Amino acid sequence: MNVRFSEYQPAVPLRAFVQSFWIGDFNVNSENNFQQAVIPNGCVELIIHLTNDHCELVKEDSWNKSPEFTLIGLQTKSYNVKFNDLVKVFGIRFNPEGIYNIFGVPPSYFTSTFEDSKDVLGVDFDDYCSRLRELKSVEEQIELTENYLFEKLRKALTVGIDYIKIASGIIRRHHGLITLDDLIKQIPIGARQLQREFKNKFGITAKEYMRLSRLNAIQNYMQTNTAINLTALTYEQGFSDQSHFTKEFKMLTGVNPKKFLNSRQDFIVIPPND
C-alpha cells in the first residue's frame, strides 16, 4: 500500500462538531506523480502538513502546491490529489456546521475549492499549527487540538436556534434517506428558508447534502462487506433501480460502482461513521 491512514475519535463534547482526527502518510513509496481521486464525504477537511513536502491540488484548472495548513471545503464530486514525495499530515474532519460553530466561518466561503487556513481562520490558528508540528506523538497532537478547539468553542457566540445544525444532523442520522418534506416536518422553518440557509452556510443545497450522506453509507457498506451485491445495495439505499444508483454514484465519484470496486487503490475514501 502506498498510503497509511489512522483515525481517532474526538472527546465526546466535540463530536457534534468534529467527525475525527486523523494522521496520514501519503505516497509512502515516494513515487513521482502519484495521483489518487478523493471521494466526497460531506465534511470539511483541515490538513496540517507535518513535513515540507505537500500534496498538489487543482485550483482554477491548474495544479497548485497546497498550503502548509490547508482547508478543503465541501465537494460534490471527486477531486484529484497529486504527490511527488512522501507527505505526512495531521487532519481534522469537521461536520460542515462544525467549522462555522467553532470558527464563525461558513463552509460556503470555500465550497468546491481549498484555501490557506491561515488566511481564513486567523492568527491564533497559525500559532496552534506551529505548536502541533513540534509535537512527536499523535496523543500529544490530539490533546493540543482538543484544548484549542474547546477554547474556541468557549469564546464562540451562539445566537438563537441553529436550524441548519439540526437539519444536517437529522440528514446524517438517516444516512441521507429522508425526503425534504419529512425533514421540514422536524424543523420549525419553511422549505425555502431551509434551502436558502443551506446554500448560504454550506454552499450546497439540502438535497446535495443528502446525496453525500447516502454516498457515505454506500462507502461504509463497501468497506465492511467482502461480498458486495450491487442490486441489493441499490434498493437498501432507496434508489428506484440500479440505473438510478449507477448514475448518482458516477456523478459523485466519477466512475460507475463496478469500476470503483475494481480499482479502489486509485481512490482515497474516508466516509464518516454516523
Walkthrough of the structure:
The protein has helices at residues 96-103, 117-121, 123-134, 138-155, 163-173, 180-185, 191-202, 206-224, 230-236, 242-253, 257-262; strands spanning 3-8, 18-26, 34-38, 44-49, 56-59, 62-65, 69-72, 79-83, 87-94, 114-116, 267-268. It is an alpha+beta fold. It folds into two domains: 3-155, Sandwich (Jelly Rolls); 163-268, Orthogonal Bundle (Arc Repressor Mutant, subunit A), CATH 1.10.10.60. It has a six-stranded antiparallel beta sheet. Strands 6-5-8-3-11 form a five-stranded mixed beta sheet, with no helix packed on it. α3 (123-134) runs antiparallel to α4. The mean pLDDT is 93.
List keywords for this structure.
single chain, 274 residues, alpha+beta, Jelly Rolls, Arc Repressor Mutant, subunit A, 6-stranded antiparallel beta sheet, 5-stranded mixed beta sheet, 11 strands, globular
